[in-house]
Amino acid sequence: MIHLLILFFIFLFQACSPTSDAKTNNLFLIPLAQENNIGSVAVHGNLDSLDVEEVPLRENSVSLEWALLYGKGPNKITRDSKLVVDEKGFVYVAADIDSDPFYNELTNKSIRGGKDLILAKYDSQKNVIWMRSIPGILGTKLNVTGIAVDSKENAYVTGSIIGSLENIPVLENQDMLVIKFDSNGIIKWIKQTGAGDGKYEVSPKKITVDTFGNSYIVGTSNGPLGENGFIVKLDTNGNQIWIDHLSIPGADIIPVGVAFDKVTGNIYMSGYGHNANFATNTTPGIGQNDLFILKYDSKGNRQFFAQLGAPLKSVFGNAITVDRFGNVLVGGYSNADFGLKPDETSYIGTIVKYDSSGVQQWIRQFGQKTTIINEITTDRAGNVFTTGQTNELIKFANMPSEGNQDVFVTKHSSSGEVRQLWQWGTIRETMVGSGIGVDFDGNLYTTGWATRNIFNEIFGNEMMGAIDIFLIKFR
Questions:
Q1: pLDDT for 139 beyond 90
Q2: Does 62 have pLDDT greater than 50?
Q3: Where is the signal peptide (predicted)?
């Protein structure tokens, strides 16, 4: 049976028991609290001219407005979807997808192809503005890991690739791939780069873009001294401006997130390190794996910002964002006790907020079993949104999730109070939230991938492949 949970939180509440209609197999809602009526919502054409207090919040009116699925035929896999929302409210979704089978004349058989890259641009009513597909040659292995958009609606996609896309020489090792599309979806340039000797791999993780259209990519490259991190800056034409390698002998450094601060022009890198002290560039660290944040100026000068760990425990930072006030927020997962006391073998969702000086403001955790935050974002009022996957009913401790893994979306206030939680899944299936964004009107979008369609009863969307990606709008 398919379950959709929408959970609303305030400080004190009485929980209602879930009910569902077994005959119709309809999705059900669980209201856990009722907030006061906020009143009508004002619409402003230029939110940049407003103070924070003038931006109305729709705390009690959030609803699932629409959802869509995208796939490519029976048994095809479409996944690794990433999402970004531009200043005009257009939504961009990138993913990798199985290529069409290739006919081998020598064996007289059709064999599985490689991986293609797809990028789609939608308006707020889920109309497709354009969609582009870039095919990989036979055997190409592609993994989309990040997406960004600049003020001119140019979109940037990064990921790792073994093989090549069209018109790019074939390389045997895993390389970094970066593609720039203009506002009409036309490819401006493709950059594929790596070690070149077949010994080492390059694994880009995320990408961000500054005010001038320069892009910043973070990731890792393996080498004789262990996992080394990097951040590279490319200009608007894809030329490398600078690169910074992170390496501490005896330590592993895994950058996973990157974000641009529009106010200061600084770039923040987040991730986790094993046996690393980032303040002194020595060993050891605080715990088994520590979350770290480093700050860069536009010239590539590095500055230590923050490190979070606990003895014998791990804190993984999967995603980073900077709000309009310069606060830095990281979402991930941890088995450390920051107030929620997770089970001994469990890693639970963890959010940490720092001010612009690196002073910790608060830490929040949720879940008791395995709950992983994959992406994080904020709205104009400083509310914090995350998405990811879980194997439990997050609100009801020690109860299993509806599926193998369920998608969740959370909302916290700027001071860390839990405001809302959405969770949905279906029996014996897997759903993962992998991207999230908020537009200028406060509409929330999330993307991810699923092994079964849970939206058919509401929206009539049918699954196309073995795994499809989804895009959901909350209003």
A1: no
A2: yes
A3: 1-22
Taking the CA atoms of 350, 351, 353 and 358 in sequence, report the sign of the dihedral they define. positive
Query: pLDDT digits over 311-342, tens only?
Result: 999 999 999 999 999 999 999 999 999 987 77
Side chain identity at 285, as an amino acid letter? G
Question: Can you point out the beta strands (E) in 56-186?
Answer: 64-70, 78-85, 91-98, 102-104, 109-111, 115-122, 128-134, 141-149, 155-163, 171-181
As a whole number, mean pLDDT of residues 454-465 equals: 70
Those residues whose C-beta lies under 8 Å from the C-beta of residue 224, and which sit 6 or more positions away, are none
- CA–CA distance, 429 with 305 (Å, rounded to integer): 40
- Residue 101 has a pLDDT of 56
**Angle ∠(80,81,84) on CA atoms, nearest 5:** 140
Partner residues linked to 109 by β-bridges:
104
Name every residue whose Cβ is closer than 8 Å to that of residue 6 and which is 6 or more positions away in sequence.
29, 30, 31, 64, 420, 421, 422
65 touches 42 (CB < 8 A)? no
CA–CA dist 465, 64 (Å, integer): 24
- Tokens at 121, concatenated: 């641009």
Q: What is the pLDDT of residues 3-54, one digit of tens each?
A: 444 333 322 222 333 333 332 222 222 222 222 222 222 222 222 222 333 3
Tokens at residue 17, please? 């028991």
Higher pLDDT, 8 or 90: 90
pLDDT digits (tens, 9 = 90+) for 420-440: 988 988 888 899 999 999 999
Mean pLDDT of the chain: 82
Task: Name the nearest CA neighbour of 294 among 358, 382, 387.
Answer: 358
Whole-angstrom distance, CA of residue 62 vs CA of residue 422: 11
- Whether the CB-CB separation of 444 and 62 falls below 8 Å is answered with yes
Residue 281 backbone class (left: φ over 0; alpha: ψ -120 to 50; beta: rest): left
Look at residues 56, 28, 68, 47 and name the one whose alpha carbon lies nearest to residue 473. Answer: 68
Helix (H/G/I), strand (E/B), else coil: 50: coil
Give whole-number Cα distances, 114 to 104, 192, 213, 263, in Å: 14, 17, 31, 42
d(CA 327, CA 351): 13
- How confident is the model at residue 34, as a pLDDT? 24
Tokens of 303: 């500055």
